[in-house]
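Supplementary Methods S3. Complex input for the NAP-bound model.
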Amino acid sequence: MSSTTKIDQNAEYDAIVVGAGVAGLYQLYRLRELGLKVRSLDAAGAVGGTWYWNRYPGARVDSQSYIYQYWFSDELLEEWDWSERFPAQPETERYLNYVADKFDLRKDIQFNTTVKSAHWDAGRSRWLITTDQGDTFAARYFVSCAGMLSAPVALPFPGRETFKGQVAHTARWPQEGIDLAGKRVGVIGTGATGIQVIQTIASQVAELKVFQRTPQYAVPMRNDTYDDAARDAWRAKYPELREQVHHSFVGFDFDFETENYLDLSPEERKAALERIWADGSLRFWVGGFQEILTDEEVNADVSEFVRDKIRARVKDPAIAEKLVPYSYGFGTARVPLETGYYDAYNRDNVELVDVSETPIEGFTENGLLVGGKEYPLDVVILATGFDAGTGALSRMDIHGRDDRSLTELWRKDIRSTLGLQVHGFPNLFTVAGPLAPSTAFCNMATCLQQQVDWVTDCIAYLRKEGLKSIEPGAEKEEWWVQHHDETANATLMMTTNSWYTGANIEGKPRRLLSYIGGVDEYRKFCDEAKTSHYEGYAMS
Ligand code: NAP
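Predicted complex, serialized as structure tokens:
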């Protein structure tokens, strides 16, 4: 497609937004508020994004509800009541539907539509976007809010076609659900998702086989239910909370301890760890001692503290040892929260199958084959994760200036400027793109809203100045990539293989996908770009 491509006038937009989840809904709202003609596209059949797709048993938010929400409308903040500290998927999905209705967003969203390609038309400074529904849209701005954990990994095992049972990826869980009662179920994967599935279904199924390659350091979730008094208490804190989240390290309502771990006596250390552990949240990871992320000695200490907690929960010491991680330190990969996960292994109907040394060979007609042994199963649940950060965008076939391909670029080297734009791709905005805290070193609601606000301000600026396009200059991008790498390399995160470093996808270039300099620091860089009128960016 090129400048000569004829576009139906009805298919000309100021902006096309991809995604109708937490970020996409807000982006549509903000751009419409600016007076833009906007169309949103989503592959799903309804709003919700992550909370539409991930409807597997036990799916639950692990950021506190009263900070995992929108801040833009006081009315909404007053109207919506959260029922608990960490709401289950249906409640969060209901919330996003409520928002879509309240702000009449649905009329501008086209569901069941996947973007196939997006090509920059330099002659007319616009994006030409095609979809699997046969649409061709033209838009000045192309804003991806497609999510950083939305591209499920492809099935890694052969023989699925021979298997007579059912197979489901957690992120493509059927709308009608799967009846697991009385079935023989296998779960592959013990990340944050697998843990939620396993702890939820263990008591419902006849037999549960957990195929574990790498164990996790999971922290017990303390999930309080809220009554009116608790909700009022949260509401009374809104003015300070909506500020606090943007100034903390990870976008939560807590921050790291002010004292250094190494300055404390052994007794003080133990007491402090127990106190933070009892909070029952991600605080133990990203609101405890910052040295966990940077100091090997502290990390080793805290890792052993968590290992002891795991050992204390599992009756059979041999099984407990299999559930204890040794190959990496606590917090150097995403820490999951759990409720009854370790206790599930005390049940007679649950078996832990260690596939760390003997990998799963594939499916048979009746189940899964490991080391020549067949495990008969009726249902196989793939909790095998995502091509994170880059996957959703790479699958869209995006071509920028001079026909350069984003997929090709990121196949060699994952680069961006502030995680929001990429050199060579004018007017492409990548909310939750790689190299920003929003790739999962943040309470997502905080970071996504901050990024959407930045994109909106940038577009407002271009329109006010009569400019048609913006893209980060090569030097600007190099500065950000270098700063990102320096920050990442000063931590222990790069030492661990997980989706955080792209290690779960064969051939993916290794780089920490999330910026780890802190949400507050990141926001300052974003603010500077704006207040300097986008110095280092090319505009025309
Ligand atoms: P994940 O953390 O990438 O875990 C995937 C799991 O599948 C790992 O245990 C992995 O083992 C295993 N696996 C992959 N390929 C395998 C193979 N060939 N054989 C055996 N095992 C294999 O994915 P996830 O659990 O879906 O979580 C992704 C992220 O989603 C989380 O880190 C979190 O950020 C987010 N999440 C959030 C929530 C929440 O907010 N409540 C809930 C769920 C997920 P290895 O580790 O050995 O590769």
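DSSP finds 17 helices and 20 strands in the chain. The pocket of NAP is lined by residues 60-62, 149, 156, 188-194, 196, 211, 213-214, 334, 355, 360, 383-386, 440, 499, 504 (CB under 6 Å).
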